[in-house]
Amino acid sequence: MTEPARLLELAVSAALTAGEFLLDARPADLVVATKSTPTDVVTQMDTAAERLISTAIRSSRPDDAMLGEEGQDAGASDGRRVRWIVDPIDGTVNYLYGLPQWSVSIAAEVSGVVVAGAVFDPSKGELFTAERGVGAWLNGVPISVSGCSELAQALVGTGFGYDAARRGRQAQVLTGVLPLVRDIRRLGAASLDLCWLACGRLDGYFERGLGVWDYSAAALIATQAGARVEGLHGRAPSGDLLVAGSGRLFPALHDLVAELGADRD
Ligand code: IPD
Ligand code: CA
Question: What's the pLDDT tens digit per position in 150-183?
């Protein structure tokens, strides 16, 4: 077995364990604390799931670095070759409200390159996986992006940050996108937006302000399924902006969001 395949196996097992825990043990009285703004929430289940994932990974790979959204572990890789990037619940607001669009997202990076990714959607029993250079799968079946090449025909996902001023700007950008596309979806979990793009349920996606834990695993899944996932003008995707689409749709969506200044607050 190759190293990426072994890392993927561990990512899958940790994601399934955490996802089943989150689904089965969700208490009626979720305790909500806020992070960057009053709408940026974290529950006791986010921290418990991140601890579960960290324990599962560390029990077989104690020397790896780990970056988790809820800060269970330090983000620095300190020269270590393998780093895990973990979002224990992507779509925490959906989880809080009992909406079924949330995931557990785990990526494994070797020397700064993501080589394996697992995104588990427990509510629907859907496990998205990818191994760099090998492929992308939904429950073990290969997936690929839609063939959409026209903006006017494209169903485009997006998301909004937690900061009010940023949201105001994102709403302005949307007024420039909405009239030109088939429609917009704001589903509430960036990792699943990218996985849904990977299997053709969305044609395009863009968002400003994502954390690496939101997109690392799913960006690999989308690229292995045939998407381009980038920042503006050939840059790598980042918190500034992430734009994604099939090879045929990407240039038009990229140019539109670049012109609208979607990378600025
Ligand atoms: C959020 C979700 C959401 C996106 C936000 C993210 P969280 O992650 O992915 O769809 O629009 O930008 O922060 O906070 O639920 O883990
Ligand atoms: Ca997230």
Answer: 999 999 999 999 999 999 999 999 999 999 999 9
d(CA 255, CA 261): 10
Give the Cα-Cα-Cα angle 45, 19, 118 (nearest 5 degrees).
120
What's the confidence (pLDDT) of residue 76?
A: 58
pLDDT at 32: 83
Query: How far is the centre of ligand 1, averaged over its atoms, from the C-alpha of 101 (Å)?
Result: 11
pTM more than 0.90: yes
Residue ranges, the chain, pLDDT below 70: 72-78
Residue 51 in domain: yes
Domain count, the chain: 2
Is residue 230 domain-resident? yes
Closest ligand to 43 CA? 1
Q: What CATH number did the domain enclosing 130 receive?
A: 3.30.540.10
CA pair distance 118, 129, nearest whole angstrom: 5
- Report the amino acid identity of residue 152: A
Ligand 1 pocket test, pick from 94, 197, 214, 240 with the greatest ligand atom count within 8 Å of Cβ, gives 214
Domain extent, residue 128, equals 3-142
